[in-house]
Design goal:
Elements: E1 59-65, H1 69-80, E2 85-88, E3 102-104, H2 105-113, H3 117-123, E4 125-127, E5 129-134, E6 137-143, E7 155-157, H4 160-172, E8 177-180, E9 184-191, E10 194-201, E11 204-215, H5 222-226, E12 232-247, E13 255-259, E14 268-274, E15 278-285, H6 291-294, H7 297-310, E16 317-331, E17 336-337, E18 340-342, E19 348-349, H8 357-376, H9 384-410, H10 415-428, H11 457-460, E20 477-482, E21 485-490, E22 499-505, H12 515-521, E23 528-534, E24 544-547, H13 552-556, E25 564-567, E26 573-577, H14 582-592
Parallel strand pairs: 1-2, 1-11, 2-8, 5-13, 11-18, 22-23, 23-24
Antiparallel strand pairs: 3-7, 4-7, 5-6, 9-10, 10-11, 12-15, 12-16, 13-14, 14-15, 16-19, 17-18, 20-21, 20-24, 22-25, 25-26
Helix pairs in contact: 1-4, 1-8, 2-8, 8-9
Amino acid sequence: MLRSFPDTIMLQPIGLTRGLVARTSTTRRIRLWRQGATMYFIHQHYPFRRPPDRGSKNQVPVAVVGGGPIGLALALALARRGIGVTVIEADDTVCQGSRAICISRRSLEILDGLGVLDRFLAKGLPWTAGRSFYRDKEVLRLEMPHDGEQKLPPMLNLQQCFAEQFLVDALAECANAEILWQTSFTGLTERNDGVTLHLQTPEGAYDLDAAYVVACDGARSPVRAALGLELSGTSYEGRYVIVDIALKSASPTERRAWFDPPSNPGATVLMHRQPDDIWRVDYQLRDDEDADEEVKPERVLPRVRSHLAFAGEPDDWQPVWISLYKAHALTLDKYRHGRILLAGDAAHLVPIFGVRGMNSGFQDTANLAWKLAYVLRGLAPDSLLDSYSAESVGAARENLRQAAKSTRFMTPPTRGHALLRTAALSLSVRHAFARPLINPRQSTAITYEDSALSSFPARSAEFAGGPGLGEVMPDPPARIAANGTWLDGHLSDLLHGDFVCLLFVGPDGGGSEHAGPLEAFAGGRIPLQAILVAAAPVRDTALVTAVDPAGRIAARFAAVPGSAYLIRPDRHVAARWRKLVREELAAALNKAVGGTAA
């Protein structure tokens, strides 16, 4: 895959004991290193290994082209569902540089389902707040929703190289997954029963047959190009130089944004703390500045030094990595083309403002993995994959709509937009009413509105609150009773990765009459996990119970005794009943796997 931001023109770590020039997305290469400096991440280089001989047809269930975070996460999700998967990666190691660093709460929930959350939390830096400045005045204090009931922070900072390495390590533990390193995609041939990938390896050409192919091969996706597909939307003129620096600082982990600071007059600077005393500095180039000149170290380093002095940071720092970024808001109209699907940057390019890029890609993986697994396991028709395209295209368009607002503020595309931004910033210094105008609109969980997999909208409308159709299930604290043991955790700790029916039982046992039938229902063709939410443990049932004596879980779901929710494997709501109608549950489950309408 192409390991770069869109329009990245240079990437190079420092800290090597000998000079080394990194591969780049253009023919230009710039050396930036210092003798004896310390690397914060040691790359492991993986050798090429000849793929196993699978007979006359080297067929695998799923081939994922691209070993970035999205391709690796999708492969891990499939492998954990028992699906054989092969990842095709042209490089011999994980990426270099910080790249996508902000991981949202929703993405952390998805990583939790992949069994890798602990690795991310152990290394990453959580944050809940941000500050924006106009020149030298603070004009906005951003506080993301967070309280003691949350299992996960709203945002976690972690360099992409760590994220990829954690996923690579987890895949190595899966017997049904493999990564073909140093293997490049050169073309494909579509067949009725699958796709033949034409690959190039250090030992020559190699063909791989797959029942399904997923392109996760980045912004300049070779698979997308081979299909003759083009992204459509808006590319913005604003350009940002992105610099990783080694800096020991006492400043907190938060998002800081400066508009028109003395260090970058007329433009913007962003700063984020990352693990291992690495800081990310993004600064906007003005329209009259030549990007080819401005990414040269002799131009970059004085500007970073000037901003650090203005921000009150120590002067003892070292550069690590430099890149150039240009914002794009682009998407394909369809993410499914026969047995080839596209995800992440191969399908859509989302501006980094609001941190929707990698996070929207993780949302793609959560949507696609269970559907592809169900199709391959014979639990759902192939047409279920059409819903991946419809839902994810809709999600991308909403992400692009929100990101476009942030991008027009961060990089005004016209003189009129620039004047409006200056007016809003000037007013925000003294007037609170203007401050919401500069809100960065951070990434939030996507709702699949009008999903073809949702059922009984009239039943859903009977609720006065709670998560509606297509929304992500909330994750309140819960005391879990199972097999005579107790665990204080969260509702998500109970989930097994298939469909879930949450049944709410009142203190007097109201609603428990459905528990017995649900036990039998859970043994049907389509895997269904039934969970009771009750004020006290329910006797004479084998169902796991989330004990809710204070009614806090019921309140989050706006539930009464007898209420029920049908939750998809990706934790989005497929149906809900103020009072469960068991016959409708079967119909809703059938529709949620691509069956007939309910």
